[in-house]
Amino acid sequence: MTNSPQRDRPSLQSRRPFTHRSWWLLLAIVLMGVGIRCYQLTEPGITDFHAWRQADTAAFTHGYLDETLNPFHPTVDRYPCELQGEPFGLVEAELPVVGWLAALPLAALGVDFPPAWYLRAISLLFFALTCLYLYLMVLRLGGEESEALLAVAALCLLPLSIYFTRTIQPDGPSLFFGIAFLYHLLVWLEDDRLADAVLSGVFATLVLLLKLSNGFLVFPALYLFISRKGLVGALRTPQYWLWGVAILVPVAAWSLYAHDFPWTFGIWGNRSGSKFTDWQIFSDPATWRKLSERLVFDILTWSGLMLAVVGATRARGREVVRFAAVWAIAFILFVCATLRGNETHIYYQLPIVVPASILIGVGARILWRAGHAGRAATAVALVVYAVTSYHILLGPTRGWENGYFNDDVPADIQEASRLVRKNLAPGEKFVSTSRHPALFFNARHRGWFYDGEAVPGFIACTDEEAPYVLWTKDDRRRATKMMRRDKTLQSQLVEVERGKHYSLWKVEQDSDVIYLRAVGGKGGSAFVWECPEGQAIAGLNIHRARDGEVVGALQASCAPVGDQQRQQQPRQQGTVGPWKGKHRSADGPDELRCPEGELAVGLEGHAEGLIEHLEPTCSPTANRPSKSTGETSFRLRCPPGSVLTGIHGQAGLYVDGVGGICAPPEAPSE
């Protein structure tokens, strides 16, 4: 007796090499699938459905070419202004394996920017390999050649597969790594070949590094272990445990390492919104209605769902069907566990197309062999499929959505990309009011984004490498209004080109006035206040709010600069600025004053969404560069030889964010 179950095991006859005829049919089907996906292949920019995710993925390849080919240093094209001082673009994300592989040939050829068509072609290559492995998997599990060919045809034609296996995202290539992992695992368990053990382990590691959500593949893998070796036999074999550990160690190591990066794309819920399920979304009928509509229109169409159900009826007698059913059920469990992510992003549902294609292939063969009625039903299914797929991919669909191949990037963002691409020299960065990644990638320039409204906040983000600011009409209106009353700012800002929605400005970097970046949140309204000429900030009045947890209101007081002025005029004869923030405590403000004879040269405190603590840094000589100290602490310093002459930031009911304005301590002109 053996520990390995033999029921319904594919015979050696079912594993024989397929015929030359099937080779040619497979090649024709794959070429058809690739040909369909070549639609808009050569579009120069990324503007179609889910352009946001595509541009961020493409940015990783750009980062490898621009920064370093070290695969463990992934950088993107955009970065928050508040993270200046950190390595540019470094972001916590799943390891961009495909982006790194795509960068290698370009780097060898001396190309410094990845064309969009090239990155789409990389996705098409992985799609073709996915088709090959799907064919081999169906045959290995006892499927007939016709079923294997029909499964590949289904993968080629399902609308969600058509689109997302040619976009610049990791989701399409992850289908290849997933099925390659399961196929080589199956061969290893049946033939006990070391090469397949290694390949299955490598592909399993890569599919998890590429998308950690592919962890649901553990269930079809367990099915293969149990069906081939038996539960007890699998558990008692040390080499299987070592194989599993070898897969998980690099995945865990990367996750822990990347978790310390300064910015995140939100893999884990503790640094961004959770993608996991809670009772509120699980019990909401709208969630399940939305997912059901996607299943019968975007993912499988009604025709594909019908054929998959027909194929699933053969689960009892066909191992290929049982395996596909286990795979599909595992994916459904993943959806149930991560409803928030799946409801938000339709590409989360892409992995279902592989097991569904196997079931569709079996179902299509059953229906075709059911006589005239079955063939008539097949013809109707094809018509329904064609109409549905056209509307999903090319035509207007339900509600606000357009067809997947239509523009998903607003016209103003496309205009902004053109302004930057036209006016910036190669390698120059810019500061944008928009964080849309397609703006940066399509502009072929990297840069910063600033979420606030304060004009000094934008200027504080510029430097010699990033001297340009990209403003909306509202931003430009605020800037020109501020320039009319500030001659220094007027000399710093030069408008380069104005479009319908955006305008590009250059910030001259040789001005004596320095704007320190704002820290804290971006809520409330923007404010800017500066001391009169010849004065600098010498103290702050602080109203505490929410039981002392945050700064509710802020007021700056100024004093004359220069030794002669400070000796001749008492401190109280300086200027007191307006209150910023609406909350006033009944006990009055805390008065934080610099010692007599000293002026403020910076600000320091704590901020996490709101300003929690703030005080002036007073010293005529201890000027140090601005830097953060800890996760919520900050210390802003004026450059050597400058003092704090103003503050800017955001304030509403409370003080959300603050930054500094610095200038040399010049006495007022006579």
Structural commentary:
InterPro entries: Jacalin-like_lectin_dom_sf, LipidA_mod_glycosyltrf_83, RgtA/B/C-like. One of its GO terms (molecular function) is pentosyltransferase activity. Pfam families: PMT_2. The protein has 670 residues and is of the alpha+beta class. The protein folds into 3 domains: 12-393, no CATH class; 411-507; 514-663, Jacalin-like lectin domain (Vitelline Membrane Outer Layer Protein I, subunit A), CATH 2.100.10.30. The chain is 47% helix and 16% strand. The strands form 5 sheets. The protein has a 6-stranded mixed β-sheet with strand order 1-5-4-6-8-7, with helices on both faces. Strands 9, 10, 11, 19 and 20 form a 5-stranded antiparallel β-sheet that branches. Strands 16-15-18-17 form a 4-stranded antiparallel β-sheet, with no helix packed on it. The protein is elongated, with a radius of gyration of 31 Å. The protein starts with 19 loop residues before the first helix and ends in a 7-residue tail after the last strand. Residues 564-572 and 621-630 have low confidence and may be disordered.
Topology:
Elements: H1 20-37, H2 51-66, E1 78-80, E2 91-92, H3 97-109, H4 116-140, H5 145-157, H6 159-164, H7 171-191, H8 194-210, H9 218-229, H10 231-235, H11 238-258, E3 263-264, H12 279-282, H13 285-299, H14 301-312, H15 319-337, H16 339-344, H17 353-368, H18 371-393, H19 411-423, E4 430-432, H20 437-443, E5 447-449, H21 455-461, E6 468-472, H22 473-484, H23 487-492, E7 493-498, E8 502-507, E9 514-515, E10 519-520, E11 525-530, E12 535-545, E13 550-560, H24 563-568, E14 590-593, E15 600-608, E16 610-618, E17 627-628, E18 633-637, E19 643-651, E20 655-663
Parallel strand pairs: 1-5, 2-3, 4-5, 4-6
Antiparallel strand pairs: 6-8, 7-8, 9-20, 10-20, 11-19, 12-13, 12-14, 15-16, 15-18, 17-18, 19-20
